[in-house]
Design goal:
- With 68 residues, the chain is mostly helical.
- It has a domain of 31 residues.
- It contains two helices and no strands.
């Protein structure tokens, strides 16, 4: 389909500490990327993510484990 031009995405992951409150979060923008959000425990992520992203989420959580 892409004739070999695209082979995937390169991603960079960052860990931030949110110091605001929930009123500061606004996903209702002109071009929203998300329709909903919620805080979840880190142990919730891997079992509930789409199958093709499970490996990368596991690796990211492993890299950030000392900070979570």
């Amino acid at each position: 389909m892409w004739k070999g031009k695209y082979k995937g995405q390169r991603q960079m992951w960052f860990l931030y500490k949110f110091t605001g409150n929930e009123k500061d979060i606004n996903i209702h923008t002109e071009h929203p990327e998300f329709s909903d959000w919620k805080w979840v425990a880190k142990d919730f992520l891997v079992p509930n993510i789409v199958p093709f992203k499970k490996e990368i989420y596991s690796k990211v959580l492993e890299e950030f484990k000392n900070y979570l």
